[in-house]
Design goal:
CATH topology: Rossmann fold
Largest sheet: 8 strands, mixed
Distance between the termini: 37 Å
Number of domains: 1
Structural class: alpha/beta
Oligomer: single chain
Radius of gyration: 20 Å
CATH architecture: 3-Layer(aba) Sandwich
Helix content: 25-40%
Order of helices and strands: EEEHEEHEHHHHEHEHEEHHEEH
Bound molecules: adenosine-5'-diphosphate, magnesium ion
CATH class: Alpha Beta
Number of strands: 12
Strand order of the largest sheet: 6-7-8-3-9-10-12-11
Strand content: 15-25%
Length: about 325
């Protein structure tokens, strides 16, 4: 398959006894499509992305497999995935300054990655860098190439970091809250740029956010994570208009302008998010769930298809059948 296909990705800590911290996660996206991963802080979104980059923290292990682009190879180890960083996998992080060496000019840094990996000549890389910077909204790209990281504003740095990630024509662009460090006024514009470019180049965008409203506008598919598990996944429109899982519903109710009707006060979800490292096999949302039943404490509900989406809630699935 072209695009991205992730099969049963898991992240386990230590010896791996008990349930995995993250997953299993399976998702696929065709070239040019955008997948949004949403969930509260601590849901395991960043760990999931780090698993896809092959850069898990020490003590964590990767399981499952990843298929990238039109490559026949299936990537199963961190080492294999890591080798694709700056090639088939592009990365944009929350703080754009982490992408830069403070002592080198913007231009040399944008060009360096692809030249060092022998993906292109220096002159071709320079030309592409200028072109990408122009497309990122810089009218004087040559001047920008001469700047040093300390001379950049957050918005400039993030747009440059995106250009840098796109230099090698990645099959997948992984973006971890790429606009949360930016002013609200810049967020939409930068998100639009990322999406426009991945769509135009055929790269799959996997973008993390805790803001369902924002992500819903740009993504084709949404994956809702809770406590390291996918609780609901499906086409963005369907999922936003007809959320099934009680957590997705609560998340939407908490999100201004999607859930708010008139001047109702903002809702919040009572209780606190779970640790990823619990040994019990049960639904991780059970302690906060309005629909909880005895069976929810006995096993982890699998993700099952339900009218166009996938939902990990037997109560919702059963009620849908009886309706
Ligand atoms: N480097 C690490 N070492 C140990 N535990 C970690 C590390 N990174 C994340 N975790 C654990 O995983 C949990 C989820 O983290 P993270 O993936 O960053 O969530 P999110 O991005 O959804 O906010 C954290 O609350 C923490 O317990
Ligand atoms: Mg995070």
């Amino acid at each position: 398959m072209n695009g991205l296909s992730v099969s049963d990705l898991t992240v386990v800590r230590g010896s791996g006894a008990g349930p995995p911290a993250i997953g299993p996660i399976s998702l696929s996206a065709e070239p040019g499509k955008a997948v949004g991963i949403v969930g509260e802080t601590g849901a395991g979104k960043t760990l999931t992305l780090r698993a896809l980059m092959g850069l898990l923290p020490a003590g964590f292990q990767l399981g499952g497999s990843v298929h990238l682009g039109n490559d026949e190879h299936v990537y199963r180890t961190e080492e294999e995935l890591r080798r694709q960083l700056g090639r088939a996998i592009g990365v944009v992080l929350q703080n754009p300054f982490t992408a830069f060496d403070p002592l080198k000019s913007v231009g040399s840094q944008i060009v360096e990655g692809v030249v060092r990996r022998r993906l292109t000549s220096r002159s071709a890389a320079r030309a592409r860098a200028v072109e990408l910077l122009e497309q990122m909204g810089f009218t004087h790209a040559d001047d920008v190439m001469r700047l040093f990281p300390s001379q950049l504003s957050g918005g400039m740095a993030q747009r440059i970091a995106i250009a840098m990630a796109l230099m090698p024509h990645p099959a997948v662009l992984l973006a971890d809250e790429p606009t949360s460090a930016l002013d609200a006024t810049l967020r939409l514009g930068v998100l639009e740029l990322i999406c426009r470019f991945t769509a135009a180049t055929g790269a799959v965008l996997v973008i993390i956010s805790h803001d369902l409203r924002l992500i819903g506008r740009f993504c084709d598919t949404i994956v809702v994570m809770y406590g390291g598990r996918v609780v609901e996944a499906g086409p963005a429109k369907e999922l936003l208009e007809h959320p099934r899982h009680p957590y997705t519903r609560a998340l939407i109710a908490c999100t201004p302008t999607i859930g708010a009707r008139g001047k109702q006060p903002l809702a919040s979800i009572p209780g606190s998010p779970p640790s990823l490292f619990q040994s019990e096999h049960r639904c991780r949302f059970a302690p906060r769930c309005p629909l909880v039943e005895d069976a929810c404490w006995l096993e982890e509900p699998p993700l099952v298809p339900l009218s166009g989406v996938r939902v990990a809630c037997p109560v919702v699935s059963r009620e849908a059948v009886h309706r």
